[in-house]
Specification:
heterotrimer, A mainly alpha (134), B mainly alpha (144), C alpha+beta (238), C: 238 residues, alpha+beta, Ubiquitin-like (UB roll), Fumarate Reductase Iron-sulfur Protein, Chain B, domain 2, two-stranded antiparallel sheet, elongated
Chain lengths: 134, 144, 238
């Protein structure tokens, strides 16, 4: 049975200030994960189970033809966005378990945002260039 | 008579803290000793997640070969259709299936839904995932 | 030497030892005669009485209702008073609880466990309600009866607590959710505000190790998930 504490007040959680809420991270990770269930399934099926070749892999011209389709281009672009967001949020969760200081946490956040934007930027450049070659 | 109890000066010291793992705090996640199903499930989720992040950048790197033209891509395809590479594809699908299906479990349980059924959820999604993996592996190996 | 309950075999106990003032910690080996009904606490008491009177252990009720005899045995959390040694193997490793500083030998400093509870919400641990609590007509006050015996096994088993001493831990979060279910005069928003923190409910990774370790049917992980559901719902409705 619980007992009444006799510790003097004013020293909760080692004096840490109340940190900003992170419900948003959880919700964003969950929603991006749900979106990926559909987007990744489409991506994997289209790239491994449609073309009649070894492993379902597409040749060079088949890739260009595939990505030039406006619907496919849109789906793959959205997929790139969601997978990058989910990946960066996941890496952030792993980094949090290293118990960084608040200052280190800010650098981690900046680093992951930078990495995420770079990934999305390069991926968009890649599919845009390939689509233009078809 | 001394008014100081022997050793009293050491009482304020914080004693050692046992942690699971191999000395690095984060390694406690991956220490299998004393873990129940939920702990294993999360460790595997972490491992597959990190593996998939690695694969994301590997994949972007491989796709960059397309920018070099048809010959570069075709050279890669020759490599990618080998038994070893196809096996890596099967491992990739294993990772995706585990992370995705366990992710469904984490999303449901972590939102307060069916938290008391988390073990049953893991096993039932595991059965589904195993069937899907076998089907995918048969298709991939059968295509060679 | 008299064995515990009539000897049927010997077991080797590998026990964690730490004394302030001595350099570091070590494991001591003790051979103890046991029977099929010997509990871990009985074996440790036998070691104290017959082999090493300096071994420090904590216990009280002898029937899993006080929560003071929590230890790790072979890497898993358990209450020593109700853990039989018969199926623990030939060599049994006994260590203090993890993630809480050791005072000496198998005794940990439970102040650091208690300090994770929100002091700004006294009703979360109080046995009885304060005189100022608003109660319905005909009710003089409330007394708290619940399953949690504050043994600390959940905190020891929690993999997140292994990585961060700032995380409030399963016991405190489960207590918050229980108070949310039956506020009894406490403002629910205060409870949710306390739990809505990166080191609160959102730090839990749903490993369910706390529920697996709990000897008292508290199901802390399920309660933390319910708390997160309440927080997500509050955010969605805001």
């Amino acid at each position: 049975m619980a007992t009444i504490r006799t510790r003097p007040p004013g020293s909760s959680r080692g004096g840490r200030p109340h940190a900003p809420r992170s419900a948003g991270s959880w919700i964003a990770t969950t929603l991006s994960g749900v979106a990926l269930l559909l987007l990744l399934t489409i991506h994997m099926v289209a790239n491994h189970f449609v073309v009649a070749s070894v492993g379902g892999l597409r040749s060079y011209h088949q890739v260009l033809e595939y990505i030039a389709n406006p619907a496919i281009f849109t789906i793959e672009a959205i997929f790139l966005l969601f997978v990058t967001v989910h990946a960066m949020l996941g890496l952030r969760g792993v980094a949090l378990d290293l118990d960084p200081s608040p200052r280190a946490q800010r650098w981690i956040d900046v680093g992951l945002i930078t990495l995420g934007l770079t990934t999305i930027g390069y991926g968009a450049f890649l599919i845009g260039t390939l689509a233009s070659r078809a | 008579m001394s008014d100081t109890v022997p050793g009293a000066d050491r009482r304020a010291e914080r004693g050692p803290v046992l942690r699971k793992g191999v000395g690095i705090p984060a390694s406690g996640w991956f220490d299998p000793r004393g873990r129940a199903l939920g702990g294993f499930a999360f460790s595997a989720n972490r491992v597959t997640g990190l593996g998939l992040v690695f694969y994301l950048y590997l994949h972007l790197g491989v796709l960059s070969l397309l920018l070099r033209g048809e010959r570069s891509w075709d050279d890669f395809i020759r490599l990618a259709t080998s038994w070893a590479f196809l096996s890596l594809d099967v491992v990739l699908i294993l990772g995706i299936l585990y992370h995705g299906l366990n992710g469904i479990r984490v999303a449901l349980v972590g939102s307060g839904l069916v938290a008391d059924r988390q073990r049953a959820l893991w096993w039932s999604l595991g059965v589904f995932g195993t069937i899907a993996l076998v089907a995918a592996a048969l298709h991939i190996y059968g295509s060679r | 030497m008299t064995a515990v309950g009539g000897a049927t075999g010997m077991r080797t106990f590998r026990v964690y030892r730490y004394k302030r003032g001595e350099p570091g910690w070590r494991f001591d080996l003790f051979d103890v005669p046991v029977t099929s009904r010997t509990t871990l606490l009985e074996a440790l008491r036998w070691i104290q009485l017959h082999l090493d009177r300096t071994l420090a252990i904590r216990h009280s009720c002898l029937h899993a209702s006080c929560g003071t005899c929590g230890v790790q045995v072979n890497g898993r959390e358990a209450l020593a008073c109700v853990t039989g040694v018969d199926d623990l193997g030939g060599t049994i490793t006994v260590e203090p609880l993890a993630n809480i500083p050791v005072l000496t030998d198998l005794v940990v400093d439970m102040r650091e466990f208690v300090e994770r509870f929100p002091e700004e919400i006294p009703s979360i641990r109080a046995v009885a309600s304060s005189p100022e609590t608003d109660t319905p007509d005909g009710i003089d006050g409330y007394e708290r009866f619940e399953d949690c015996i504050e043994c600390g096994l959940c905190l020891s088993a929690c993999p997140v607590s292994a990585t961060s001493d700032g995380y409030v831990g399963p016991a405190a979060l489960a207590a918050a959710q229980r108070l949310l279910e039956e506020p009894r005069g406490t403002d629910p928003d205060r409870i949710l505000d306390w739990a809505d923190d990166p080191l609160g409910a959102w730090r839990c990774h749903a490993a369910f190790e706390c529920t697996a370790a709990c000897p008292s049917n508290v199901a802390p992980a399920e309660r933390i998930m319910a708390l997160r559901g309440a927080l997500a719902g509050r955010r969605g409705g805001a």
